[in-house]
Amino acid sequence: MRKHLSPGLVLLLLFFVAAAALPFFVDPRGHLLRVAAMALLFAAMAQSWNIVGGLANQVSLGHAAFFGLGAYTSTLLFLRFGISPWIGMFAGAALAAFAAALLSFPTFRLKGHYFALATLAFAEVLRVIANSWASVTGGPVGLSIPFLGTKPELFAFRAVSSYYWIILALLVIVCLAFRLLARGAIGYRLRAVRENENAAEVAGVDTFRVKLTASIISAAFTALCGTVFAQFTFFFDPDSIFALSGISVRMAMIAIVGGLGTLGGPIIGALFLIPLEEVANAYLSSAAAGLSQFVFGAILVAAILIQPRGLMAYWPKSKAGRLARKDAKPVTPATPATEGGR
Amino acid sequence: MVQALVDGVLLGGVYGVIATGLSLVFGVLGVVNFAHAEFLMLGMYVAWFAWRYLGLDPLLGSVLSFIIVFGVGYVVQRTLIERVLKAPPAAQVFLTVGLLIAIENAALMVFGSEFRSVSVPYQVEGYRLAGIFISAPYLYAFAAAVILSAALWFFLDRSWTGRAIRAVAQDPMASALVGVDTKRTYGLAFGLGVALTAFGGAVILPYITVSPTIGGQFVVLMFTVVVLGGLGSVAGALVGGIVVGVVQSMSALVFPIQLQNLCLFVIFIAVLALRPQGLIKGA
Amino acid sequence: MATHGAAPILEASGVAVTFGGLKAVDKVSFTLRPGEIVGLIGPNGAGKTTLFNSLVGLQRLTAGEVRLNGEKVSGLKPHRIARKGMTKTFQNAALFPDMSVTENVMTAALLRHDLAGARAKAEQVLERLGLTAIGDADVSDLTFPQKALVEMARALATEPKVLLLDEVMAALTPTEMDDVMAVIRSLRDEGLAFLVVEHHMRAIMALCERLIALNFGQLIAEGSPTDVANHPTVIEAYLGAGAAEAAHA
């Protein structure tokens, strides 16, 4: 049926090509490239979140848990045992996947607010553990990765551009995974679960297994992002890596502002929000402490009130756009009399 | 041991009032207000300024906290929350999370990041009763919480507005039909909910310092209390508060201070998983 | 026609569901044979939908047992029961609103097919129900009768042996109703067993070979349509309920 590329997909591919070329046109060690790399990393994180939050509509407020597990696992394996972060990142992903599976058992029946609360508490548990179990995690002071010069086999580079391309590759992989999931059998099942869990069960969908699969994949990708973040920034501590607003909410917010459950949403959201935050930090932080974070919160409130379907809704050809136009129309029930007449 | 029990009950009574506000908001509006603890912070600041510039004891300043935060809450509900009442939970979650971040950082801008505390004459005083030390600020805060709870019960049970709130909680459509202004009632309920929490924040000011991030320390505590008592249950929140207070001060005997919250988290996730409707069923 | 000699495909024995102290379904036993259309009647609140939910696994049984093809299915999750061959439609068309009609049906067809096979199966089912023309429509744009038919198409796409229909004809015009009844009969001739809740007595009488009547969760009568319709307890149940409804109006 839809064998040819849609205009949206062509735009996405063009974006990836342009993004790959960017380091050739800007200072490869400069601040601009760092911001761009961060935006792409957050896009990858938001896309990972989107697998659970967008496709299954399980609103997680605790994805920082998996992000932090990824960062801690690879970094500790490297610092304590000299294991390359390239291997450590998959250990972290495996651990995060395992944690997601464990968390699924007590939470799979929870919906909406309750699920959000439970995931939030889970990330908080990990934050408290990371802070208190200092003999293993290094405690509240956090972990630093010593810089030993460019060592590709140890995931260490002098040039920002190297990290930038790795992050871009990660984003492409997560987007590919998202698209395969969304278009595959599991995508249909996830959307069914999202829209009516009982009806999905009766139509033969193993709702628990579908959600479990999505959470595991989502957690694993989030953990990969965590490792990359740790390698890129050289330093992190429990409060910043397991942060509610800094990580968990931001991941979700990027996906929501861009367009929940859409392929392009997290990328658009990240390209819009991360540079905006960067500018806000640069110009507003000096004005008053907290102002840029205040703006961040205010944008989230505004985004929910103005266009809950996200920026993707302004792309007329997208499904989000069609649905948003439908939202705007007053609902006229098809045959109002019949239901009440029985 | 007994000492910890007494401390726990005294603390827990205040937690009860703090969490009652959250539970009331959920019970009436059906919205889980993630920003709720920020109103606790606002309440504490109002009481602090009342103490600093008006010389009011926080126990009296709490009345001012109640009134001012009620007004703020009413406006927030009518301008923001009202618009997502019928939206899917995700929209409600993120609207209130956005509010949380905005309020916390607005406070940081306005009040600065320093910790502020009050000094009152009874701060380190207390009563000895059969070998148990009853701290005066704990006791007074507990007494204030009990008085406010009684007033709340009286208000919900007897006053017309209170009854309207309960009616809207049960069936908004039917309430609208019999002439209740549901939008106004939602506003009042939200205002009342955050005002209760602000009051709770004000009365603990003699033994807890306030800073813009104080809300973060209460978020999980508050939700644990409410989830224990059953989301939406006002009586359950009061009982849940005392349970959490006791668990907290008992666990302090066994665990180092950083792990105290861990106990709460574990209880929290366990209760959510096993009995999302709450352990304590009540009105 | 019903193969009266065949072993029952569905056996419910002593099925009971209690909510608090209320007995929504009270020790109901009946059987359904392959190729049989049985009507389930009873006044509002008699427990028909609760019985349906307990059969397909949406509602946990307080007591009793449900067997499908001789195998115990009570206690299984709905998707397992669907896999074994029993599913139901929802009274108020619980479709997946953000999906097209074809996608709705495909989701169910994925139970036994891969993606391509599911699409083919969905198109086949839609054609059989005369819904091909609206395959690409969003379900939120459908009329209520269309939704009910898509609901039925989705259930059929799981390729059930037993299908529980909860008021799929509620809003249909007489002609549409005849079309749907023709489809049900032809599926019956292929060996599918139906348990049908319907308020249109005309449809019930025309379609069913046998009726079961529920009131206050209890099975009060069972037999041929005319026998059950003339059964004194059934008449009393309806008249009582009718009188009560008239008093409320």
Structural features, described:
The complex is a heterotrimer of chains A (342), B (283) and C (249). Chain A contains 16 helices and two strands. Chain A is mainly α and 342 residues long. Chain A is globular, with a radius of gyration of 21 Å. Chain B has 283 residues and is mostly helical. Chain B has one domain. Chain B has eleven helices and two strands, in the order H-H-H-H-E-E-H-H-H-H-H-H-H. Chain B has helices at residues 2-29, 36-54, 58-79, 89-111, 136-158, 160-170, 172-177, 182-203, 214-229, 234-254, 260-274; strands at residues 126-129, 132-135. In chain B, a hairpin with a 2-residue loop joins strand 1 and strand 2 (132-135). The model of chain B has no long low-confidence stretch (mean pLDDT 83). Chain C has 249 residues and is of the alpha/beta class. Helices cover 39% and strands 24% of the residues of chain C. Chain C has helices spanning 48-56, 78-84, 101-109, 115-128, 144-156, 174-189, 201-207, 225-229, 232-248, and strands at 10-19, 22-32, 37-41, 63-68, 71-72, 86-88, 162-166, 193-197, 210-215, 218-223. Mean pLDDT of chain C is 86; it is low at 243-249. Chains in contact: A-B, A-C. At the A-B interface, helix 4, helix 5, helix 12 and helix 14 of A face helix 4, helix 9 and helix 11 of B.
How many alpha or pi helices of chain B?
Answer: 11
* Percentage beta strand of chain C: 15-25%
Compressed to H and E, one letter per element, the order of chain B equals: HHHHEEHHHHHHH
Strand-residue proportion of chain B: under 5%
Taken from the alpha-carbon principal axes, the silhouette of chain C is: globular
Detail the poorly predicted runs of chain B: none
Q: Which protein chains make the most extensive interface, counting residues with beta carbons within 8 Å of the other chain's beta carbons?
A: A-B, 48 and 49 residues
Main location (chain B): membrane
Subcellular location (chain B): Cell membrane
InterPro entries (chain B): ABC_transp_permease, BCAA_transport_permease
Family (chain B): Belongs to the binding-protein-dependent transport system permease family. LivHM subfamily.
